[in-house]
Amino acid sequence: MRSITSTSLAALVLGLGLSAASAQTIRFGHVDPAEWTSSKKGAAAEVFKMLVEGESDLTVELFPAGSLGNENELIEQAQEGLTQVVMVSGAMSRVCRAAQVLDVPFTFADATVAWSVLDGPFGDELAEHCLEESGLRTLAYGETGVRHFTNNTREVRNPSDMEGLKFRVQPIPLYVEMVNALGAEPTPVPWTEVPNALATGLVDGQENPVGVIYGNNLHQLQKHLTLSGHVYATDFLVINDEFFQSLSEQEQAVVARAATVAGTVGRAIQQFNSAQGLSAMASEGVTVYAPTAEELGQFRELAQPAVLEWLREELGDDAEWIDRLQAALDS
């Protein structure tokens, strides 16, 4: 009897210990506003939290609006395991160089093509590569948006219209190369300083998704919008893999499923914001121009080769990912 009681007690203690260990907390950080109706990352984070907490004993704490730092800092925290889940865009390329191939201008004809590629074998292969490079597991791909040019000087219909204009770009070499190739003058400006740069005339224009332009009132400082769609910007929803492996198989399945739904919701919110913003900007007096297929071809013929030349040198051995992406697009 004593032996049975001891075994039962040991099992009970072990069971309680496993239960306590499994009830872990996931810190989820991103830089977008928390408001889910207007924030792609905010919406994705809220959905992730609700699904994970509803289907497991895990707790999810949300840290929106850059409360834990900028995207580069969030990536570092995720690698160190201080923040378990983060949703970032361009910062992913700092720890996985191959992610830059997604920013090659005029790669994706539209968002639906990007979804097909990212949610297919190529996206899985890139995720596996980035896991090996960074220790971060890509759970899902979201969407930052399709980027377009605006300016306050003249309507831009083709690359020749960009000559002599200064465009604010992200402080990322790929974007500098792209705008240079199009004949304009790229001016790297931190995001927080963009409104002032436009208002003071430091730059004539900028490039961002429509939802970002409208949501941040940049359209009030710009007269012209060109729907160039030059870059489809991707969000990466990633988790520290060491933490992920510490979860039970059931918890891993819950987290992975919640992330997939979250990425899809983020895309939907971004698409809604873009449609709403485009309609509102037109009604508020912004001139909106949609280039013809021929004009888009002119943009592509100038921008893409220049960026690819730079990127192949930048990636070195990882340049194969350029060809792998092209193969996925051709399949």
From TrEMBL:
Key word Signal present: yes
Range of residues in the leader sequence: 1-23
Alphabetized GO MF terms: carbohydrate binding
Subcellular location: Periplasm
Keywords from the named record: Periplasm, Signal
Annotated PANTHER family: 2,3-DIKETO-L-GULONATE-BINDING PERIPLASMIC PROTEIN YIAO, PTHR33376
Descriptive protein name: C4-dicarboxylate ABC transporter substrate-binding protein
Native species: Roseinatronobacter bogoriensis subsp. barguzinensis
